Amino acid sequence: MKRTLPLLGTLSALLLTTGLAMAGPGAAGHGHGEEAPAGTPGDPKKAARVVPITMKETDDGRMVYFPEKVEVRVGEQIRFVLKNAGKADHEFVLDTVENNAKHRIAMQKNPDMEHDDPNARRLAVSKGGEILWQFTKAGEFEYACLIPGHYEAGMKGTVVVK
Questions:
Q1: What is the DSSP string of the chain?
Q2: 11 lies in which domain range?
Q3: pLDDT tens per residue across all 162 residues of the chain
Q4: Total domain count for the chain?
Q5: CA atoms within 13 A on the CB side of 37
Q6: CATH no. for residue 121?
């Protein structure tokens, strides 16, 4: 019994620590509701400006968003209405350029990673989705498709918050 108690204490501490680590914010783009560098998930009960975003490939092999640049005011809530008009799956991940770069490396190791986070959506061909986001800080942020090869083919856009 004397040996069991320390072992149980160690196991309990390990499980508690692991649980806390798993409950905290995840990798870039996986904050699940916490304040992120680009802002915070929007409030569906409040008004939002609608910004349609189309994802597609071009005839010359580029992958693009239309529009490629969006300007918003600090505090403004935006409802990004996403449409995949392309011939491949695409995603929309809203974050800083630095966080998206880190996430892009993770996506190279796990290209089938699905996104259905407050700041990210993966869309199949001809599908749509929405992201409701409130921009709480001034700066430049990026929306990008982090599926391997898509970012490199030009699939990124900028949100300028003034």
A1: -TTHHHHHHHHHHHHHHHHHHHHS--STT--TTS-BTTBEE--TTS--EEEEEEEEE-TTS-EEEESSEEEE-TT-EEEEEEEE-SSS-EEEEEE-HHHHHHHHHHHHH-TT---EETTEEEE-TT-EEEEEEE--S-EEEEEE--STTTTTTT-EEEEEE-
A2: 4-161
A3: 444 444 434 333 333 333 322 222 333 344 444 578 889 999 999 999 999 999 999 999 999 999 999 999 999 999 999 999 999 999 999 999 999 999 898 888 877 776 668 999 999 999 999 999 999 999 999 999 999 999 999 999 999 999
A4: 1
A5: 18
A6: 2.60.40.420
For the sheet containing 116-117, what is the strand order?
Answer: 69-72, 156-161, 139-144, 90-95, 120-123, 116-117
